Amino acid sequence: MPDKVKAVFLDRDGVLNQEMGDYVRRFEDFHVLDNFDALKTLQDRGYMLLIATNQGGLAKGWYTEEELAKMHNHLKQVYHEHGVELTDFFYCPHHPNFTGDCDCRKPKPGLLLQGIAKYNIDPSKSYFIGDRERDVEAGTAAGVKGILIDSDQPISTVLDQIA
Ligand SMILES: [Mg+2]
Ligand SMILES: [Zn+2]
């Protein structure tokens, strides 16, 4: 068995791109935040970077999987140009009012558990940075240390909380 990987999970809206008050429905409204240096630092410390995001707007029909993929490809590309590799995106396409309950919508830990299983991650050495209490709850439920930030707060401000 190879050594387990350590990871920093990242919420999307309010962490990697600007919080718009609700799901970002249109590509034009998708604004990438400048956390390039901070995430490069985490990458250099040996952390895999993974995204975990609720996308209930899919269940509501506000945007399509294709439009979501376009946003995520853009996010990956912009960070890549700054030397940061966002390894994978885990998203919950459900919404309780439209598709019923699921195991992946945060505060459930499903998205994190998917990432942990797929990449052989050690949760006890991993973190989840999010701008909602539900992100911290999902992290805790998955055995990952949650770090709560304000929406659009630079990640550089919490680097000292990550080993
Ligand atoms: Mg958020
Ligand atoms: Zn779900």
Please describe what this structure looks like.
It is an enzyme of class 3 (hydrolase). The active site is at residues 11, 13. The record marks 105 as: Contributes to substrate recognition. Mg(2+) binds at residues 11, 13, 131. The structure is a single chain. With 163 residues, this protein is α/β, with parallel strands linked by helices. The radius of gyration is 15 Å and the shape is globular. It has one domain: 3-Layer(aba) Sandwich (Rossmann fold), CATH 3.40.50. 33% of the residues lie in helices and 17% in strands. Magnesium ion binds next to loops.
Task: Count the E strands.
Answer: 5
Bound molecules: magnesium ion, zinc ion
Low-confidence stretches: none
Give the oligomer, counting copies of the same chain as homo and different chains as hetero.
single chain
What would CATH call the class?
Answer: Alpha Beta
* Major β-sheet annotation: 5 strands, parallel
Order of helix and strand elements from N to C terminus: EHEHHEHHEHE
Number of domains: 1
Give the mean pLDDT. 96
Strand order of the largest sheet: 3-2-1-4-5
Whole-number radius of gyration?
Answer: 15 Å
In brief:
With 163 residues, the chain is of the alpha/beta class.
List the helices and strands and how they pair.
Layout: E1 6-10, H1 36-44, E2 47-54, H2 56-59, H3 65-81, E3 86-92, H4 96-99, H5 110-119, E4 127-130, H6 133-142, E5 145-148
Parallel strand pairs: 1-2, 1-4, 2-3, 4-5
Bound molecules: magnesium ion and zinc ion.
